[in-house]
Amino acid sequence: MLAAAPGKWRPFAGGTDLMVQLESGALPEGQYLGLWKLGELRGVRETSAGVEIGALTTYSEILASDLLGREYPLLGQAARETGGVATQNRGTIGGNIANASPAADTPPALLVYDAELELISVRGTRRVPYDAFHRGYKKMDLAPDELIARVRLPKRAPGWREHYRKVGTRKAQAISKVCLAAALVMDATGGAVVDVRIALGSVAPTVVRARQAEAAIRGQPLDAAAVEAAVHALAQDIAPIDDIRSTARYRLSVAGRLLRDWLRRV
Amino acid sequence: MSEVPAVTVRLTVNGREAEVRVHPMRRLLDVLRTELHLTGTKEGCGEGECGACSVLVNGELVNSCLTPVLQADGADVTTIEGIAGGPDVLHAVQQAFITHGGAQCGICTPGMVLASVTLLERTAHPNDEQIRAGLAGNLCRCTGYMRIFEAVRQAATSHTAAGAGKTK
Questions:
Q1: Is B110 in the A-facing interface, judged by CB distances under 8 Å?
Q2: Residue-number span of the structural domain to which B154 is assigned
Q3: How far does B6 lie from chain A, in Å, by closest CA?
Q4: Mean pLDDT of chain A
Q5: Among B81, B85, B159, which Cα is nearest to B116's?
Q6: Residue A6's pLDDT is what?
Q7: Structural domains in chain A?
Q8: Most exposed among A178, A225, A258, B95, judged by the fewest C-beta atoms under 10 Å?
């Protein structure tokens, strides 16, 4: 259907944001392709390479997965802080990605886990690294005839110390003002950072990897100087704005504090 | 809601079969209140932020203001009207709300009761953190929440003791 009339049909999964947009008149009335009953796009599967999560897997299903809770806990932490139980029962990981709100809760965790998307269409299947998927505000590497089918997370070496922190007006049922997902692994002696991932939401037109902040500590001992260098570099990685939820100044300040707070305690 | 023709949607609501002919994207909330005359479910915000419209669809709590009725086709729906065991048999949650003063204006109450009922079905003896998480999607402007949490704690003890309430 998507191939026959590209752009005519808009994929619709749980609808937790599309319904809001539709009811407020922000979307054309158009045609919606209901995906909810496509069972083959649901479920969490362990593979030899890591884990595969069907695009229609809901936040509640993510929370119920022992495998994800053990191996990829930041996903559950993000899911737990998204809306409330009713939202979590209907919101899907694929929908969250494709809706591409810069404030979405799960994408920073997906970036930390080096996620890869599997996109399908009548033309075939293609894989896109998630950190190359979002190209600009609500612009993504997804053709009008494609659906996100699966999210793949590679197997991870042990030893990563992980962190997730969402800052919002309330502890639940709030869209974030700033959101940080991060992880790092130290060398055997604990002397230096071997590798690190830092990702943020609500501070740019898309979810972002803070690569300059990462570079400031990768390979370094995690001392006060390195921490400050990372916080300083973070300002180059993000581009926060004033909007109805917060201000650029607040976001810049709080993003830096979240990072410093984590690096001092990790 | 113009050019798309009406579709027939069949669903079970509080144990009774219902059939409506409506636009497929019509909100489940509106179908319940208007076509099916079940006005217990309330609209608080219309954008999934307040939980006043919460119902159970196939046993899962959802915001009916965000659910197109077509996605409830073939589903088993429970609204506040279906929570009591009968005309004089309140669910343990309802009784506890009365005992503890968990309702003032009442607009959040149907959704709060649904959220509490489904919480206790999943976690028979929730701790305070679990109660708050289970009800996190339901906003109340009147009570300050404390009496609602008390009611849920009370219902947790009497719910399992009496096995009260038909919940599906």
A1: no
A2: 92-162
A3: 14
A4: 95
A5: B159
A6: 77
A7: 9-154 (3.30.465.10), 161-265 (3.30.390.50)
A8: A225
Q: Any bridge partners for residue A166, and if so which?
A: A179
Is B168 inside a domain boundary? no
Tell me the per-residue pLDDT of B74-90, one tens digit each, with 9 for 90 and over. 999 999 999 999 989 99
Chain A residue numbers touching B48 (CB-CB < 8 A): 16, 19-20, 83, 86-87
Facing residue for B62 by CB, picked from A89, A171, A173: A89
The shortest CB-CB distance from A34 to any of B62, B70, B115 is to: B70
Residue B33 lies in a domain: yes
Asked if the Cβ–Cβ distance from B25 to A22 is below 8 Å, we say yes
Query: How many residue pairs from chains A and B have C-beta atoms closer than 8 A?
Result: 79
Rounded mean pLDDT of A87-91? Answer: 97
Same domain, B27 and B59: yes
| Rounded alpha-carbon distances, angstroms, from residue A266 to A1, A175, A224 | 49, 26, 13
Q: For chain A, what's the residue count?
A: 266
Does the reported pTM lie above 0.90? Answer: yes
Any domain includes B2: no
Last residue of a domain, one of B82, B112, B135: B82
Q: Check B47 against A80: CB less than 8 A apart.
A: no
